[in-house]
Amino acid sequence: MKSTTKTHRRTRWLKTLHQWHWMSSALSLVGLILFAATGITLNNAAWFESKPTVITRQADLPGEILQILAPASTSAKKAALPAQAEAWLDSQLGIHINGRTAEFSSDEVYVSLPEPGGDAWLAIDRASGEVTYERSRRGWIAYLNDLHKGRNTGVIWSWFIDIFAAACLIFGLSGLLLLKLHSKNRISTWPMVGLGLFVPFVLLLLFSH
Questions:
Q1: Nearest-10 crossing angle of helices 2-43, 140-149
Q2: Does the keyword Transmembrane apply (predicted)?
Q3: Which residue, 90, 96, 168, 179, shows the most beta carbons closer than 10 Å to its own?
Q4: How far apart are CA 59 and CA 133, in angstroms?
C-alpha cells in the first residue's frame, strides 16, 4: 500500500513538473533564441560593424506654438514640452516624442530621443523657431543588441525581460528537478551537470584576468 501511494505521488509530481517545464519553455522559447543570438553578436561586435544611416530634417515652428514654450531662462531647466508643441513636432517631423523631457535654456530647447539601435535629437531655436531634427540608425543587429541590453527600450520591454527571466528560472529549476527524478535510470546525468558547472568555472579561473 505504501509503495502504491509513493508511486502515485511520484507520478503526480512528475506530471506537474513536466507541465511547468513545457509551459515555461514555450513562454521563453522565442526570448531564448533572441538572447542567445544577440549574445553571439554582442560578444563578436567587430564582425557586425555597420555604418550609421543619418537622417536630418528641418522645420519652422509657428509663432503661436513658439510662444507657449516655457519662458526663457538664463539657467538650464528640464520639463516636458507643451502638448500642442509636441503634437505639431510629431506630425511635421514624423516622430514620437511621447512626453520626453526637454532641456530649456535661454536660446534653445533640446530634446534627446534615444532608441534601440540608434539615436536622435531635436533642437528648437527660441528666437527664430527653427527646428533641427537628426536621427541615426545603426542597423538591425544594433537594434537587437539593444533589446538584449534593455537599452532605451522603455518600461514595457523591461517588464518583458523580467517575465522572460522568471520563465527561464522556472524552466531551469523544473528541468533540474526532472533530472533528479530520472537520474537513477540515467547514470550520466550528474556527471553532465557537473561538467556544465566545472567548465565555465575553470575558464573563468584560468583565462578571466
A1: 130
A2: yes
A3: 168
A4: 9
- Nearest residue to 54 via CA among 121, 109, 108: 121
The stretch 88-98 carries a mean pLDDT of 93
| Inter-residue contact 97 to 106 (CB < 8 Å) | no
State phi, psi for 99 to the nearest 5 degrees: 70, 20
| Cβ neighbours, 10 Å, residue 204 | 10
On whether the CB atoms of residues 44 and 145 are closer than 8 A, the answer is: no
Its pTM stands at: 0.80
**Looking at residue 2, what is its pLDDT?**
56
Encode burial over 3-34: b for 16+ CB neighbours within 10 A, e otherwise.
Answer: eeeeeeeeeeeeeebeebbeebbebbeebeee
Which triple of cell numbers denotes residue 146? 539593444
- Please say if the pLDDT value at position 70 is more than 70: no
Rounded to the nearest 10 degrees, the angle between the axes of helix 2-43 and helix 154-182 is 140
